[in-house]
Amino acid sequence: MKKITLGLFALLFIGQLSAQKLKISGNLKNLPDGTSIKLIDGMANKPVDSAKSEDGKFTIGAKVENPSIYILLFTPSNSQPTQIPVFVGNDPLEILGDFKETSAIQYKGSANQDLYLAYMKALTPKVQSLFSDKSLAASPAGVSAKDSLTKQIELKETDLTNTLTNLLKANNQSPVSTLFLIQSTNFVTYIKDHVGDLYAILDGPAKKGPFADLIEKSLQSAGMGKVGSVLPEFKQNDVNGKSVSLSSLRGKFVLIDFWASWCGPCRAENPNVVKAFNTYKSKGFTVLGVSLDQDKSKWLEAIKKDGLAWTHVSDLKYWNNEVAVKFGIQSIPANFLIDPNGVIIGKDLRGEDLEKILAANIK
Q1: Coil, helix or strand for 36?
Q2: Torsion over CA of 16, 21, 22 and 24, rounded to 10 degrees?
Q3: Measured between alpha carbons, how far is 355 from 277 in angstroms, rounded to an integer?
């Protein structure tokens, strides 16, 4: 995912915004008085403002310097929290509707929000359908229909690519386009491999701001991590605070796996990695998990729940994980498979691909 699950696909797209006071006004029926409302920076995963509701109304905002996706976290007393992602631009945003029907909430006053919703309407069903087919293809039930599913997946990836390309061309000045381009690199290999060509479609404001910077840095570091090159050394602390270096695993085939507990596609891919690990761990293969988590307890819980019985490291800096930044990781899951000499022999392996390349290299 870039950085993502399908839910995060909806959360991680943003509009261009200059330094100003961001103001979000809400008027929601059935919103209990005194509900705690936090405005959370979706990229930094940190609260930036808070308010209390009164008569269903609230006003919340922050001083911002860059565009971002924000999450409105509603916590009524004696009730489960509710999250509503909001896409903010350079104008105020008004939120209207019924708190009991958040899917039908209306957003007014923001052209950026309108474009965001248009992108979501066009792309989300295609992404969901693609995920569904890929999940089926990776399951035992999909084995008998593997050939037809593979063809179907190829057609859906082509359709998604064409839809995105047309949207980029029609909205090539908007930073919203930049973010959807970044996110789509996680869903379609062709888009990831041709992100430079697709980025060239964009112009003006679409090539400014943190997400444009992210693409440009990724393009600059594209040479790093190529198959056939040696993966650079790095160190990071494990779950017990002990420093672990990549070189300490020299002599083994190692999958360096970038993931996070909050990443849906990562968690969906974990069973494939576990299967490969259990099959080849006695033959000189291991995994080094690099987590983009921020909450250590959730990181440890996911390791235990998913049965990830290998070494894990993280600096708990979310998307600013120093190893991820060094290697230009802009979406997860992402991985590099290196041989006993540290040479990359595969990258971004999914499903059966990991076991196939291990079978070909480990005799």
Answers
A1: strand
A2: -150
A3: 9
Pairing status of strand 235-237 against strand 243-245: antiparallel
Structure tokens at 45: 């995963």
State the DSSP string of 147-179.
Answer: HHHHHHHHHHHHHHHHHHHHHHHHTTT-HHHHH
For each of the domains in the chain, give its residue range(s) and CATH number, in order of start.
6-110 (2.60.40.10), 112-220 (no CATH), 235-361 (3.40.30.10)
Q: How confident is the model at residue 10 (pLDDT cuts 50, 70, 90)?
A: very low
Residues 6+ apart with CB under 8 A from 308: 270, 273, 274, 287, 289, 302
Pick from 30, 28, 94, 31: nearest CA to 61: 94
What lies within 8 Å, CB to CB, of 138 at 6+ separation is 272, 350, 351, 352
> Going by C-beta distance under 8 Å and a sequence separation of 6 or more, which residues neighbour residue 171?
115, 177, 206
- Cα Rg for the chain, rounded, in angstroms? 21
Q: Write out pLDDT tens, residues 25-76.
A: 999 999 999 999 999 987 778 898 999 999 999 999 888 776 677 889 999 9
